[in-house]
Amino acid sequence: MFAWWPILRERMAGNVPYVIYHSGVSTTVRVNQAANGGTWNSLGVYDFDSTGVRVVIGNSRTTWWDTRVVADAIKIVAAP
């Protein structure tokens, strides 16, 4: 699973929680959206079942200037 956010280093949040619900459990992955913008960033590899998949992006600001959390795109790629 991958996430994409734009290249907007200024005032982007540095500790964004992506909560991934999969196979009856949830996994939280924290990313720095001030880095690696404009490309697909791995959120890890997960198993999915008939319950589906859901991704929730939160706003966990660590400093006063961490003001922007961007939810641009999520990509799920089947494992070979």
Walk me through this protein's architecture.
The protein is mainly beta and about 80 residues long. About 0% of the residues lie in helices and about 35% in strands. The chain contains no helices and six strands. The protein has a three-stranded antiparallel β-sheet with strand order 4-1-6, with no helix packed on it. A three-stranded antiparallel β-sheet has the order 3-2-5, with no helix packed on it. It has one domain.
Secondary structure blueprint with pairings:
Layout: E1 2-4, E2 16-22, E3 25-31, E4 40-42, E5 53-57, E6 73-75
Antiparallel strand pairs: 1-4, 1-6, 2-3, 2-5
Short description:
With 80 residues, the protein is mainly beta.
Strand ordering within the main sheet = 4-1-6
Q: Work out the helix count.
A: 0
Total beta strand runs: 6
Order of helices and strands: EEEEEE
Task: List unreliable stretches of 5+ residues.
Answer: none
What is the average per-residue confidence, as pLDDT, rounded to a whole number?
Answer: 86
The CA-CA distance between the termini, in Å, is: 13 Å
Number of domains: 1
Structural class: mainly beta
The helicity comes to under 10%
Main sheet summary: 3 strands, antiparallel
What portion of residues belong to β-strands?
35-45%
Tell me the Rg in angstroms. 13 Å
Principal-axis shape: globular
